[in-house]
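quick one before i forget lol
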Amino acid sequence: MTTRRRLQDIYDRLFEHFGPQRWWPAESAFEVMVGAVLTQNTNWRNVTVAIDRLREGDFLRFERLAALAEAELAEMIRPSGYFNVKARRLLNLLRMIGELYDGEPERMLTDEIETARARLLAVTGIGEETADSILLYAGNQPVFVVDAYTYRICSRHQLIDEECDYRRLQEVFMDNLPRDAALFNEYHALLVMAGKHYCKKKTPLCERCPLWEV
């Protein structure tokens, strides 16, 4: 079976099992950008607490958040964990948007994909997964997001070798699927669900998984 066919089969099975995931849960593109940084090295439940605190203070707007001092922002996002580091990373991101896009996040999100991606990756604290999450989920750009669940599932199903890096794994999806943001959005979310519920790191539940024998 070709890689293209296998990827489609995996998607079909996961979608039939889990249904539509409707990611990213947010009220605005800017909120998605903030959440993409806050979700680094923590679970989504903690992120929602931090997001709610920012929303209550009306800080989910570029000009309001960018005006905060680092210590103030760190205290507000404390529930997300590693709050001092994440406050610095958020402000680094906002500074880049201020300098290169005149403080208009929408301009970055609609910029040419490779340009926007390169500028995001040049921000200290923004890695490939975070940059691509911002482009896909906030900007609706057709970029496939790769995370630990993607690596684990693809490795166990022998779609990649042990030396496969982020970009090569991303290309497996982007070269074999239609360049469609909605599809990439749903696919990544479904892989996360499969990783959380079945393809676990230490105790995988293979025989219960919808991908069993794929």
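fyi Residues 91 and 149 are 28 Å apart (CA to CA).
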